[in-house]
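Quick one: Carbohydrate ABC transporter permease from Paenibacillus solisilvae, structure tokens please.
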Amino acid sequence: MTRMMKKSNLLVHLFMIEFCVVMFYPLLWWIGASFKSMAEIGLPTLFPKEWLWQNYTEGWVALPKYTFTRFFMNSLKLNVATTVLHAVTASLVAFGFARLTFPLKGLWFSVLLMTLMLPGQVTLIPQYTMFHSFDWINTYLPLIVPSAMGGAFFIFLMVQFIRGIPRELDESAKIDGCSLFGIYLRIIMPLTLPALITVTIFSFIWGWDDYFGPLIYLNTVGTYTVPLALRMFIDSQSAVAWGQLLAMSLLSVLPPVLIFFLAQKHFVEGIATTGLKG
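--- reply ---
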């Protein structure tokens, strides 16, 4: 029985190793291709014969008038604003749904969940018309202001987490003279830190990778985010410098990956506890 278990474990580990190799191969090819010359891009080799570090230096300043420093700063400022708004407003709205009693509470929560099933394309034209009437086109306001609504997914996640926090803590705080906002700020917020970090990570990654929103609302190159800047490698040249494009796209994924690994412990805790509670 022991030998059979060992053989079974060996087969499982071999399968997992092969699976990891298959999963990591595109990433390894991407890293290697970012250092290749145009002549080597189409070759089936994983890594180049000659490593061209200038793909990164030339790619950083390849676009006319602007460097990728500008585009990274645009994306960073935009996503920091949306992430903070998502975390603050989602926790406030979730606290109301999880702890307060008000008329038609169940109906409004159902409406909130129904918005999760509504495709973004359905509301695109009305939103664009509204923001155009506000004279917000070619600004970051159409991308930032909706974040002040919290986001249905983030509110739902926070509600599930807050429902798992004992109400006795609220009652004890009330006895000590704590106000309703004080309960939210001093009791709920510290206890929901894992869920807040989960909201922060999701919001930042989704915002950083967003291509469609900036494409619709931003018109001038100086306001472009990183995804739009990467598109210009293809649109502005008849012969695409694939090495530079792959190098800049590889750098563009580093911020969300870094944030995920730095907050991985809290992220996993937030997902796990949200799934168990509520």
